[in-house]
Structure formats: structure tokens, C-alpha cells
Amino acid sequence: MEGLVGMDSCLHDLVSLLCLDSDDVRMVGLWGMAGIGKTSIAEVVYHRFCIQFQGFCFLSNVREKSQKGDLIDLQIQLLSQILVEENQSIKTFLRGNNFIKKVLCSMKVLIVIDDVNHRQQLKALAGNHDWFGSGSRIIITTRDKSLLTKSKVDAIYKVKELDRDKALMLFFHHAFEDESPTEGFVQLCVDALHYTKGIPLALKVLGSFLYCRSKAEWESGLEKLKVFSNKEVQDVLRISFDGLDDNEKLWGTEAVEGIVLDLSALRDQLRFNVDVFTKMNKLRVLRFYFASIDGTWDYDLIRMKYNYWYVRCKLHLFEDLKFLSKNLCYLCWHGYPLKSFPSNFHPRNLVELDMRFSRLEQLWEGNKSFSMLEFIELSYSQHLIKTPDFSEAPKLRRMILEDCTSLVKVHPSIGALKYLTVLNLTGCKNLKSFLSSIRMESLQFLNLSGYSKLKKFLEV
């Protein structure tokens, strides 16, 4: 089957665990990381052996379908496929369970439940062995081994990464249509294997992307991939290649001047290799942002949308950030995951700083010169404790600190910012004192609402 090059041993192992000659009801779990080939293996076994069963059903993308609808829809789909008829009589989850048991307990069925991520899904679709007739086989694919253990399946098979030889075989299949690489491409193929980590989907995506491209295009594509490193490489490849023109503007490493990534486009966790920043001395623009909250001041909408993405798609760093370019003019990192910036972070040309929803506890220590800085946005940075000394940031015009719920103190230097027009401290409920006086000549908007512990107020 196309796409299963080098996976014959996995198929053999799964068939052995299914014990197809046995008359008992058997549930077998396929466990492994995303893109490892669980679904593809299950599909091959399903199509190869379904004719031996009275009824059969392949429920694909259960995780996604559960998010879009409810479990009753999946129960209806299960019964409709097996009984080859529409059945709209299932009105409640419990009735669905009873109906499945009643109808299928006397049938020998083959069912694949693909991409399960919650135990409730299994309770709705394959709650127990006695739901199904003698000789039935239930195959479950998941990234979460604990789901299989708790559901007491009969066997668990871990789908592993391909070894080097099998990975090359699969990569050649997609990059060269099974031909051997021509002269000059051999080392590039080895480099490609390094990034794909033996993950079949990653090999397929990268191989297909590089198919019929020149050597220069191969080198450029693989160089861009150095910026990102991810245990679930297929997610990075989707972003880095399918959406490269729209979401990521990356140009090499030492020559990089800008990086742009829409975090809301990520489906799962992205693990970022911070070492690449040490070579980016020319970096002027760094923007990791959520597209649907960027440019809006509707913070109720922002909170709702951010929380939705934050629990599903997080950007993680392998280690603490040690370096950011001193040439940065624009820094936007929504959901910045660290407590502070690197100690040597001092971009004198920085104009705009947008760190909404960050885990920052403070921006910087002491009195640092940010003579070009005009805008600071730290809203919903709920770990922020205090603001720094702004004496050497005289051009600040706007400062938005909405809902920084751990903020206790603002530095008195804010009161001397004569170009500041907007200061928003709405919802900073733990702020205990503000300013004794202000000399902000240009101030047009000041919001101090939402305080519950404010003890010291200002004199104008």
C-alpha cells in the first residue's frame, strides 16, 4: 500500500496480536506519537481482513469529530456503517450504548476507532468486550497509552520510528519516486533524515515537498528547517512547508532579519530550538503571534480565543533563552514561556514590545537604556510582579498592562514619561500603590479600574 514502505514488520506484529483465528472478542491498541503511521497500519489491516467479518466500520479522526460534534453522532456512524443503513433513533448517549450492545452482541465485527484522545470516546463506542459477538476485533489508535491501559485492552502495540534504512526507503519513495538519488543529493537526503527523526508522515511530507526540486531548493528548504525542532516533526513540516509563504518568512540563519509565525495555526505542541538565535545577529523582527487577537482591543474576545488555542497549541523551548539579537526593532511573542528575558538582552533600537499572555515576572533589572522604545503591551501576563525603571525609555507613548493580576507595584519613573499618551492598568487587582504624583504632559487615557487593594493613589 502507498505510504507504507518499510512498515511490513509493523503489519505482521499487529496481525499476530489480533489472533484472528481465535473466537474470543479481542481489543488491540496501536500507540505512538502523531504521524508515526498508526492510522495507515490500521487501514491496511482493516481492508485486508474486513471481508472475514459480518460487519465492519472504520471510524476515522475520532478526536476531531468529538470536538466538532457529540458522541451520539459517532455512535450513529458506527451503527450505520455496520448495518449498512441510516439509524437516527439514538437520542441519548446511554440509549446509544444499549443499542450498540443489543445489535452487535451477536455479530462478528471488525471496528477501527482511530485517533482516540479521551476515555469517554471508548466508553461510547466500545465500552466492553460483551458488546460484540464472538470473534470480533476492535483496533484502537491513540497517542495516549494510559487510555488503553485504563480501558483494559488485550494488547498494546507501540509503533516506533523507522530505522535508517527503512526511513531512506520511504523518503526515496516520495522524493524520487523510488529512484536512487542523483549525485549531489545523497548528503542532503541524510540531512533530511536528521530532521524527520524516522517519522513516516514527516518523511512523506518533506519528501513530497522536495520532489522535482533543484539542489539549491533542497539546500534552502533544509536550512529553513533548522529554525524549528519538534518531537512531533510532522507538525513543524506542515507549518514550515505547506504554509511557508504565509506564516514564516525565514531566510537562512546568519542572514535572518525577520521571523514571523502565526501560533494560532499550530494544532499541537511546537518545540523550538533556541540555539538557532545565537547565530541571528541581524534579526530585526521577531513575531510569534495569535492572528485572531492581533490588532483587536476586545479583551473579552481575546481571552476566549487565547485560552482556546493555549490549551491546544503551545510553543515550548528546549531550554532557557540565552540570546536575542541586539538589533531587534520589533519583538512580539504572545505566550512567551519564560520568567525573564536573557540577562544580556539589550536591544537599543527596540521600538515595539508586545508580550501579551507571557509568563514574564519582570521585563529587566536595573536602569537600562531603551531610547527608541515607544510601545509596551503586556496584557494578561498574569505572572508579572512589577514594572522596571523606565527612566532611560523617554519616548514611551503607550503602555498596556490590562489584567496583569500579579502586578503589585509600578515603578515611579512612569510618572515622568512626558510623551506617554495611554496607560492602561485595568484589572490589575493586586496593585497596592500607584504614583504619588505624575508629570505626564501628553497623557490622554488613564485606566485604573478594577483595583481591590489599591492603598496609595496619585496627585495630579
Oligomer: single chain
Q: What class would the helix/strand composition place it in?
A: alpha/beta
Largest sheet: 8 strands, parallel
Kindly report the average pLDDT value. 76
Roughly how many Å is the radius of gyration? 28 Å
Run of helices and strands: HEHEHHHEHEHEHHHHHHEEEHEEEEEEE
Strand order of the largest sheet: 6-8-10-11-12-13-14-15
Distance N to C terminus: 76 Å
How much helicity do the residues have? Answer: 25-40%
The total of beta strands comes to 15
How many helix segments? 14
Q: Which segments are poorly predicted (pLDDT under 50) over 5 or more consecutive residues?
A: 228-249, 293-299, 308-313
**Beta-strand residue percentage:** 5-15%
Shape call: flat
Describe the structure.
The protein is α/β, with parallel strands linked by helices. 30% of the residues lie in helices and 14% in strands. It has 14 helices and 15 strands. The N and C termini lie far apart (76 Å). About 8% of the residues have low confidence.
What is the fold's blueprint, element by element?
Blueprint: H1 8-18, E1 26-31, H2 38-49, E2 55-59, H3 62-68, H4 71-83, H5 93-104, E3 109-116, H6 119-125, E4 137-142, H7 145-150, E5 155-158, H8 164-175, H9 186-196, H10 200-210, H11 215-225, H12 233-242, H13 244-247, E6 258-262, E7 270-272, E8 285-289, H14 299-310, E9 315-317, E10 330-333, E11 352-354, E12 375-377, E13 398-400, E14 422-424, E15 445-447
Parallel strand pairs: 1-4, 1-5, 2-3, 3-4, 6-8, 7-9, 8-10, 10-11, 11-12, 12-13, 13-14, 14-15
